[in-house]
Amino acid sequence: MKRRLPPGEAYGRVQALIARKGLHTVCQEARCPNLGECYARNTATFLILGDRCTRDCRFCAVTPGTPLPPDPEEPERVARAAAEMGLAYVVITSVTRDDLADGGAAHFAATITAVRRLLPPARVEVLIPDFQGRPEALLTVIRAAPDVINHNVETVPRLYPRVRPQADYRRSLELLSRVAASGIPAKSGLMLGLGERAEEVRSVLEELHRAGCRILTLGQYLQPSPAHLPVVSWVTPEEFEHWRRLASAIGFAEVASAPLVRSSYRADRSFEALLR
Questions:
Q1: Domain hosting residue 56, numbered range
Q2: What pLDDT is attached to residue 234?
Q3: Residues 154-194 pLDDT 10s
Q4: Do 116 and 124 form a contact (C-beta atoms < 8 A)?
Q5: Going by C-beta distance under 8 Å and a sequence separation of 6 or more, which residues neighbour residue 23?
Q6: Fewest CB atoms less than 10 Å from the CB: which of 38, 63, 68, 132?
């Protein structure tokens, strides 16, 4: 699998804009293989609440450490950057902030509100952490009324102690269930290639659907550095197509399943497909 940085002005323009506004994107911090394509399409996934994560998941390239206090001006800068880019679909995510009482939920809500004010027609999708299972934190985000709430379970329950030891699979399912109950479309995703078994993947898909999740993403895990978990298996495009068909048969309204799919990749198209 290979991704080349595309030529053209859009890529450099987005990169310069992000730097000028003092912002971060998960595209850069997580070393996404689709960064070049997305920047060239004049889009990006904004990463709020800094670039240091309070968790140390073994698969993630985002730097762990002690983060700075939330920047109260960041929501406005994100909104202005989105407006300058002329985005019709804005995706916002964050590092995990277990150091904050609300896990950063109020900052998410402020960013959604700022984007709505400057870009009224735009759709807003948020990719949120688990907020340590605090219902009031999730309710803060729900009340801000994003168009989609995404929360990734990432892998099968058996692998959580090795892949994401500070997370809890059941807690994530409960969060997605609460999102679905609010009426906002719930979205989730998994990485494949970490050592999961076929029957475990099927079980997770069924549980996600029962929780009310309607948009699903499946992609190949790629090792960001030698310090991260190794790739256990390479999943073929044919296998990804098998999982896409199975997920559709289970009842997901929209499924993106391919080696280089990531949770925010072409999120606007997934939402449009859901509406159809």
A1: 9-275
A2: 96
A3: 999 999 999 999 999 999 999 999 999 999 999 999 999 99
A4: yes
A5: 46, 47, 74, 77, 78, 81
A6: 68
Name the E strands within the chain. Answer: 24-25, 45-48, 89-94, 123-127, 148-150, 186-192, 213-220, 254-257
Q: What is the CATH number of the domain that holds 42?
A: 3.20.20.70
Structure confidence at residue 150 as a pLDDT band (50, 70, 90) = very high
Q: Which residue has the tokens 């990006």?
A: 44
Residue 158 is assigned to a structural domain of this protein: yes
Number of domains in the chain: 1
Angle at 33 between CA 28 and CA 35, to 5 degrees: 50
Q: Tell me the C-alpha to C-alpha distance, in Å, between residue 16 and each of 22, 23, 34, 41, 134.
A: 10, 10, 18, 15, 37
Whether 2 maps to a domain, the answer reads no
> How far is 65 from 75, CA to CA, in rounded Å?
22
Report the alpha-carbon distance of residue 233 to residue 215 in Å, rounded. 25
Helix (H) or strand (E) holding 249: helix 237-250
- Residue 44 in domain: yes
Q: Residue written as tokens 């309710």?
A: 139
Please, which residues bridge with residue 217 across strands? Answer: 189, 256
Report DSSP state, residue 228.
S
Can you tell me the mean pLDDT for 127-142? Answer: 97
**Parallel, antiparallel, or unpaired: how do β-strands 45-48 and 24-25 relate?**
antiparallel
* 4 is a domain residue: no
Q: Which of 92, 93, 46, 52 is nearest to 69 (CA)?
A: 52
Higher pLDDT, 61 or 226: 226
